[in-house]
Design goal:
Elements: E1 7-16, E2 25-33, E3 37-42, H1 48-55, E4 63-68, E5 71-72, E6 80-84, H2 95-109, H3 126-135, H4 151-163, E7 169-173, H5 181-198, E8 201-206, H6 209-215, E9 218-222, E10 231-234, H7 247-263, E11 274-275
Parallel strand pairs: 3-8, 3-9, 6-7, 7-8
Antiparallel strand pairs: 1-2, 1-4, 4-5, 9-10, 10-11
C-alpha cells in the first residue's frame, strides 16, 4: 500500500513583487515532502534567491503564505539552516569560533522558540563543535582564521556552523559556485551524505546544470517570471555513487539544458516535464 509523504513545506497562492516591478511569483503553489532533496535552477534574475529567502523567512510574500511544519513563515525559523556562497564567516574569528557562534547566540537567548527551538537544551557546546569539525574533516583547521583556509575548507566550516544547530531544513544558495571542479564534487558528495544521515529536507539553488542533476531528486525549473506554477523534473538517481559517469546523468543534463533553453523564450511545457500545482 502506498503511503502519502508528509508535506513539510507548502507554498499557498504565493505572490511576491519588488517595489514598482512585476511579480516574480504570482499565485504560486508548491509542496515539498519531509526529507526530500531539491535543486532549484534558472537564469540570473529569475527568482531563485528570492524563493530561498522567502523559505528562510528573510523575505515575506506580498500575498499568500508559506508554511513549514504547519507554521506560517514570516521570520527566520530556528530549525532552518542557510548556507551561502560567500560562506559568511567572521574573518577575525577562528574556524572553531565561527562554528560555535550560532550555539553561543542560542544559549544567550535560551529556548524561546524564536532564536532557538523550545526543545533546545542549554549546555556545553564544546562536544558538539568538535563533533562537527571532525565530521566535516576540518578539525586540523580549528585554530586557523578563514583567510588561512582554502575555499573548500571555508565552505566546510560554513556547513558545520549550520549543522551544529540541528536543522531539519537546509537551504543552500549557490554553495559550490566559487570552488574548483574536484572540490565542488567532493563537497556535493558530502552534502548528499549529510542530508541522508540527518534526514534533512534539502533545497539547493544553483545555475549549474550538472550540480542540479547530481543533487536534486526533484529539480524545480524557474523560467521567466512571473512564476505561476512549478515546473518539476523528476530525477530519481540523484546522489547515487557513480551517477555522474552514467549515460542517464548525461541524458538528464541534456533534458534540463533543453528545458532551460526552451523556457528562455517560450512558456510552454516541453516533452518530459511535469507541470505540478501540488
Amino acid at each position: 500500500m502506498l503511503v502519502a509523504r508528509y508535506m513539510m513545506i507548502n507554498f499557498r497562492n504565493v505572490t511576491f513583487a519588488y517595489a514598482n516591478a512585476q511579480p516574480v511569483f504570482d499565485g504560486f503553489n508548491w509542496s515539498i515532502g519531509r526529507g526530500e532533496a531539491w535543486a532549484v535552477i534558472g537564469g540570473s534574475g529569475n527568482g531563485k534567491t528570492t524563493l530561498l529567502m522567502m523559505l528562510a523567512g528573510l523575505r515575506v510574500p506580498t500575498s499568500g503564505e508559506i508554511n513549514v511544519e504547519d507554521q506560517v513563515i514570516d521570520r527566520p525559523r530556528p530549525r532552518t539552516g542557510l548556507v551561502l556562497q560567500e560562506y559568511g564567516l567572521l574573518p577575525w574569528a577562528t574556524i572553531k569560533q565561527n562554528v560555535s557562534l550560532g550555539l553561543k547566540v542560542r544559549n544567550f537567548y535560551g529556548p524561546d522558540g524564536r532564536h532557538a527551538p523550545v526543545e533546545h537544551v542549554v549546555g556545553p557546546i564544546e562536544p558538539l563543535v568538535e563533533k562537527w569539525l571532525k565530521r566535516l574533516g576540518i578539525e586540523a583547521m580549528r585554530d586557523r582564521f578563514p583567510a588561512q583556509c582554502s575555499g573548500g575548507q571555508r565552505q566546510r566550516a560554513a556547513i558545520a556552523r549550520t549543522l551544529v544547530l540541528d536543522p531539519d531544513l537546509l537551504l543552500m544558495d549557490e554553495p559550490f559556485a566559487a570552488l574548483d571542479a574536484a572540490t565542488r564534487e567532493d563537497l556535493q558528495n558530502l552534502t548528499i551524505e549529510l542530508q541522508r544521515e540527518q534526514n534533512l529536507t534539502l533545497i539547493v539553488v544553483t545555475h549549474n546544470i550538472e550540480d542540479a542533476v547530481f543533487l536534486g531528486l526533484k529539480i524545480l525549473v524557474l523560467d521567466q517570471p512571473p512564476h505561476t506554477a512549478p515546473i518539476v523534473i523528476d530525477n530519481p538517481q540523484a546522489g547515487e555513487p557513480g551517477y555522474r559517469l552514467q549515460p542517464a546523468f548525461f541524458e538528464k543534463c541534456a533534458q534540463l539544458r533543453e528545458s532551460l533553453t526552451h523556457y528562455s523564450s517560450v512558456r510552454s511545457t516541453p516533452v518530459g516535464l511535469v507541470h505540478s500545482h501540488a
